[in-house]
Amino acid sequence: MAILNILRYPDARLHKVALPVTVFDDGLRALVRDMTETMYAAPGVGLAATQVDVHKQVIVVDVSERRDSTVVLVNPEVVDASGVSDIEEGCLSVPGIYETVERAERVRVRAYDQHGKSFTLEAQGLLSVCIQHEMDHLKGKVFVEYLSPLKQQRIRGKLAKQLRKSA
Length: 167
Ligand code: GNR
Ligand code: NI
Prior knowledge:
Blueprint: H1 26-41, E1 46-48, E2 58-61, E3 71-82, E4 88-89, E5 99-100, E6 106-112, E7 118-124, H2 125-138, H3 149-166
Antiparallel strand pairs: 1-2, 2-3, 3-6, 4-5, 6-7
């Protein structure tokens, strides 16, 4: 087990497009374990492989209060979406920034688990928004890119300042 380094926005590697997983082997399961440990340690409610510089379609999510309900999504696809949600989002790659983004309220997602077993999941509320946020990471998209150019510029300034303070 290992806690992985999380890339910070702006970093060009956050814009890489993840490739589908083709082999469900022990290497994949080790990645899922390390991502899960990293998500809980952060702490966060989700983590996409892109954020730890692995460009494969792998997501872990846990929106439960007890932090005991990990959902693993490999090669996820949204097969149905409805409604509009605007939950305030945060991102481990954009620390300290919280903004509302328009998302679907409900999604039906088809995916595989870490053993290659296919399943579908109906999600709403925070789980739905979190899955959409993580699937964006796999496409190389960070949630702040939905905001106005002015807001993005302010966020970049704030992050640069954070970085200088921690240096
Ligand atoms: O920890 C996280 N919280 C969160 C809150 C609202 C909507 C999405 C998220 S995901 C985020 C962790 C993260 O950065 N995942 O990519
Ligand atoms: Ni994120």
